Amino acid sequence: MRRSNQGFTLIEIMIVIAIIGLVLTLSLPSITEHLKKPHRSEIAALLTEQAQQLERHFSKAGVYSNAPDLSAGNDYYSIAPTLTDTGFSLTASPKADTLMAGDKCGSFSIDQTGATSVSGQAEGLTAKDCWGR
Question: What is the value of pTM for the model shown?
Fold first, then answer.
């Protein structure tokens, strides 16, 4: 009487592993993009909030330059404020060695007029694409 072997051969297992690797390789950029998008929205909201805080200060003091301390950013972006008596600019740059380092939107900026911009973005992207406005 002949015994039948049950189970998978080494070739079958290697083919399955290769298919899984291929699927992961193709889907990883999409997954990473989905992880980055909320962080872009978060920093855009934080910059807008700080701009509003500076406007409230300006309406009371008449200048931007002596505004109280602003947030330094979050885990993924650092914020650098530039304050003068009559204007301001807030720029959020991705921190090195984080998920957002080298992000396609680069750095986010907002000024006292409410104008938003990005710098260092991938070719073809606009501030509207990155700020979501």
Answer: 0.78
Say how far apart CA 18 and CA 14 lie, in whole Å.
Answer: 6
90 three-state secondary structure = strand
Q: For residue 109, count CB atoms less than 10 angstroms from its CB and return exposed for 0-12, middle for 13-18, buried for 19 or more.
A: buried
Distance (Å, rounded) from C-alpha 88 to C-alpha 111?
5
Q: Where are the domains of the chain?
A: 40-131
Q: Which residues contact 109 (CB under 8 A, 6 or more apart)?
A: 47, 89, 90, 91, 92, 116, 117, 118, 119
Cβ pair 118, 127 in contact under 8 A: yes
Residue 31 carries which side chain, given as an amino acid letter? I
Task: Look at phi and psi of residue 114 and say left if phi exceeds 0, alpha if psi is from -120 to 50, else beta.
Answer: left
pLDDT tens-place string over residues 42-89: 999 999 999 999 999 999 999 998 888 888 889 999 999 999 999 999
